[in-house]
Amino acid sequence: MPKKKLDFKAGQYVVYPTQGVGRLVRVEEQDVAGQKIKMMVIEFERSHMTLRVPLERAEISGLRPLISMKKMNEAIDSAKGRAGAKRMIWARRAAQYEENINSGDPMKLAEVVRDLQRRTASDTMTFSARQLYLRALERMAQEFAVLHKMEVEDASDKIEDILGVPKEIDLNGFDEEDDDGEEESEEDEEE
Q1: Can you say how many angstroms the Cα of residue 85 is from the centroid of all Cα atoms in its chain?
Q2: What domain range includes position 129?
Q3: Are residues 79 and 126 in the same domain?
Q4: In angstroms, how far is CA 28 from the centroid of its own chain?
Q5: 136 with 101: CB under 8 angstroms?
Q6: Is this prediction's pTM over 0.85?
Q7: Measured CA distances, 104 to 34, 40, 41, 189 (Å)
Q8: Residue 47 contacts by C-beta under 8 Å, 6 or more apart in sequence?
Q9: Which CB contacts under 8 angstroms, 24+ apart, belong to 54-61?
Q10: For 123-149, what is each residue's pLDDT tens digit?
Q11: DSSP string of the chain?
Q12: pLDDT tens-digit map of 12-64
């Protein structure tokens, strides 16, 4: 059965599983060990990284074009569902989540986001769970941002709004009016 050949064009956004969304800058020919090899040059703006992938290894590496809006909506709907059973010990679940994040599969990313998101404002997360959640959310948001022509941070906020993830309470925050110095206390008024 013949495999479908991936067709990429310069300027196109692509997803590399372990790095997220990047832009295909060009295809260039490089001399490697005396052989001419066509390389796809992909720039990842967020990580300030450039990756060269041999054209003939693009499919094996998991490189893919962006998903459609319909598929993104399906992934977000999947992330709205109930969290999966937590019968495994954390180390095994964390390894599975890590594998899902690095798969580049939007449905697997949605699964991680679904399982690790906070359901109420009082929910707490361990440091490692929070890091995995944020990585999965960012990977989803990178693709969402390109599809909706917005910044990644705004896309993360939008996805969390759609999912109904409660906002964290900033315990270090303060009211600007109280810190203004122009507010008079009741004692000052009596003098």
Answers
A1: 23
A2: 69-163
A3: yes
A4: 28
A5: yes
A6: no
A7: 33, 18, 18, 63
A8: 19, 20
A9: 55/27, 58/6, 58/8, 59/3, 59/5, 59/6, 61/16, 61/17
A10: 788 899 999 999 999 999 999 999 999
A11: -PPPPP---TT-EEEETTTEEEEEEEEEEEEETTEEEEEEEEEETTTTEEEEEEGGGHHHHT-EEPPPHHHHHHHHHHHTSPPPP--S-HHHHHHHHHHHHHH--HHHHHHHHHHHS-SSTT----HHHHHHHHHHHHHHHHHHHHHHT--HHHHHHHHHHHHTPPPPP-TT---TTTTSS-PPPHHHHH-
A12: 999 999 999 999 999 989 888 889 999 999 999 888 899 999 988 888 888 99
**Which residue from 147, 85, 135 is spatially nearest to 109, judged by alpha carbons?**
135
Distance of alpha carbon 107 from alpha carbon 131, whole angstroms: 19
Sign of the CA dihedral 133, 119, 69, 93?
positive
Is 144 among the domain residues? yes
| Token reading at 64 | 């893919």
Q: Is residue 183 part of a domain?
A: no
CA-closest candidate to residue 4, choices 59, 63, 71? 59
Tokens, residue 44? 């990842």
Residues in the chain: 191
For the chain, how many structural domains are there in total? 2
Tokens 């998991």 correspond to: 62
Token duo for residue 168: 């964290």
In whole angstroms, what is the distance from residue 124 CA to residue 134 CA? 14
Residues 6+ away with beta carbon under 8 Å from 101: 108, 109, 112, 132, 135, 136, 139
